[in-house]
């Protein structure tokens, strides 16, 4: 009663009453403006990302070499099939990607196991040095490898490309396997040793199966990085060692720009990537769930 009397005399402020409908209208208005801004940004990002791909697809079916549409044609895809150097470069890319990814996966996996489980004097330096190829710019890595190959007398070719790709993809495998090993329970190894398992049996029956998701992820990452690499390959590839990115760059510079044949090649690569991802989606989900 005392507080009520003070409020009536004006000493205490009266509680301001805001209608429930008015508050809800303000909330809906602010929420609507936020959603509209986010939708606008989302649509702009989609257009920015996919509009060049749409232009690429349309130009691959254009009968003319210019951007002006002159008619539907499949002749650029026919030329793509008959381009011998293209298929040689594609074969080299697949060969280098598979072999270098395999070498990087084996070395990176064994290196991660050794660094994580064994204590030695230079352990910290090994972990630091192993990440240098990830930090260094590609052009510095390519020039350094080219100077090294020239200094030791190794002629540039597919062998040097293989060594270079295994070098800069190895840290990615090392990182992914190390992250997997950080979750490993060492008591399992102790239990295996107590039951009479040897180091080799423990490695192949416990450690490697546990690290398999990280190993597969590193292997697929190494293949992807090898297939798309241009800068490092440009410095270490010799005559007859052209990969697909080198072929595309040479075709662009030789013909004065992106031709419809290069557009057709890009469309084929996009379709192949989408199809491969579609068929591997269940397999990748299983890896991610482990």
Structure description:
There is one protein chain. The chain has 290 residues and is an all-alpha fold. It has two domains: 2-60; 77-289, MetI-like fold (Orthogonal Bundle), CATH 1.10.3720. It is built from 14 helices and no strands. It is globular and about 75 Å long. It starts with a helix and ends with a helix. The model has no long low-confidence stretch (mean pLDDT 80).
Spell out the blueprint of helices and strands:
Elements: H1 2-9, H2 20-60, H3 75-82, H4 84-117, H5 123-130, H6 132-135, H7 138-152, H8 158-181, H9 187-194, H10 199-228, H11 231-236, H12 244-255, H13 260-279, H14 281-289
Fraction in helix? over 70%
In percent, how much strand structure appears in the residues?
under 5%
- What is the count of DSSP helices, taking H or I runs of 4+ residues? 14
- Cα distance spanning the termini: 67 Å
Whole-number count of domains:
2
β-strand number: 0
The rounded Rg comes to 30 Å
Content-based structural category: mainly alpha
Order of helices and strands: HHHHHHHHHHHHHH
CATH topology of the largest domain: MetI-like fold
Shape estimate: globular
Largest sheet: none
CATH architecture assignment of the largest domain = Orthogonal Bundle
- Look at the structure and give the CATH class of the largest domain: Mainly Alpha
What is the CATH superfamily of the largest domain?
Answer: MetI-like
Low-confidence stretches: none
**Mean pLDDT score, rounded?**
80
């Amino acid at each position: 009663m005392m507080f009520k009397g003070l409020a009536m005399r004006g000493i205490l402020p009266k509680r301001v009453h805001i209608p429930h409908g008015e508050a809800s209208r303000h909330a809906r208005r602010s929420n609507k403006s936020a959603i509209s801004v986010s939708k606008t940004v989302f649509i702009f990002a989609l257009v920015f990302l996919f509009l060049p791909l749409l232009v690429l697809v349309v130009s691959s079916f254009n009968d003319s070499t210019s951007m002006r549409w002159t008619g539907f044609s499949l002749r650029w895809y026919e030329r793509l099939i008959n381009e011998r150097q293209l298929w040689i470069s594609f074969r080299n890319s697949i060969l280098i990607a598979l072999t270098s990814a395999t070498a990087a996966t084996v070395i990176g996996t064994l290196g991660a196991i050794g660094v994580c489980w064994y204590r030695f004097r230079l352990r910290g330096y090994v972990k630091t040095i192993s990440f240098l190829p990830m930090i260094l710019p590609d052009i510095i890595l390519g020039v350094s490898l080219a100077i090294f190959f020239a200094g030791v007398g190794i002629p540039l070719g597919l062998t040097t490309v293989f060594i270079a790709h295994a070098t800069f993809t190895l840290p990615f495998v090392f990182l992914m396997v190390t992250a997997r090993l950080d979750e490993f329970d060492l008591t399992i190894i102790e239990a295996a040793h107590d039951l009479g398992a040897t180091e080799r049996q423990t490695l192949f029956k416990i450690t490697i199966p546990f690290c398999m998701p990280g190993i597969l992820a590193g292997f697929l990452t190494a293949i992807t990085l090898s297939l798309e690499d241009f800068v490092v390959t440009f410095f270490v590839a010799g005559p007859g060692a052209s990969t697909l990115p080198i072929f595309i760059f040479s075709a662009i510079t030789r013909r004065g720009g992106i031709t419809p044949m290069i557009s057709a090649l890009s469309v084929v690569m996009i379709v192949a990537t989408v199809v491969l991802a579609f068929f591997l989606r269940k397999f990748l989900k299983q890896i991610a769930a482990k």
